[in-house]
Amino acid sequence: MLTWTAPEQVGDLSWWPVVLVISILVLYNILFQRIAPVNHHLLWSLGGTFGLLAIGLLDGNTWTDMGLGWGYLFWGFVWGLGSVVVVTLGYTIAASFRRGRDALHDERVSSLSGPRIMFNALVEVPFGTVLFEEIAFRAVLFSMLARRFGVVPAIIISAVLFGLWHILGSIGSHEQSAALGNVVGKGRAAAFLAVGLSVVTTTIAGVVFALLRLVSGSVLAPMGLHWATNGLGYFFSWTIIRMRHRRARGAS
Cα–Cα distance between 218 and 70 in angstroms, integer? Predict the structure, then answer.
């Protein structure tokens, strides 16, 4: 079902709750990307999720404003499940070609065991990444921005902030992905280009996620797409790397 469920714009709202949420996101990003990247990440993510929701409610946003209304959860789930199916098909088709396999090859998962991959894809990604980011950017922050500036500015601002959110995490990414490394090359200029590409692609993703949230009325829809791109990415990358290792051993 297609809907267009957006918070109603309200005039004369205080600006400081928006600044507070953005400040929390900046501090959180620095903490887990640079200071303590793995320590108790899941606990902090869950705590941060509830904290941001509390701020959103105190700011006057309803559950429906934030894409969490009960009446929209079913269609949010349907849209999210459909997104998972589409991404699965896309990854499967990409993995059938050499260039597609190169694009999915991520050295960061090469040393992980099967159980660790399962944990990352089924626990770490949905509860440590997707839940927090979707509640932060597509539920709380989006609703706050839409009620102050309107839907279109909310889409643009939240998407740009989502892109900037990925700066720290994308540093050195060209060294982990052979496909990205081939595109940007090596050296300092390549590092900056890789970060820039990450910001652009995740900004575009932020727009898509916001539109999914609007047409379904629920943040479950972008959660499904977000998990599929990240969680299934782990599975496909790990499988491709293992197959290449087996072929290398067989050839030797």
Answer: 9
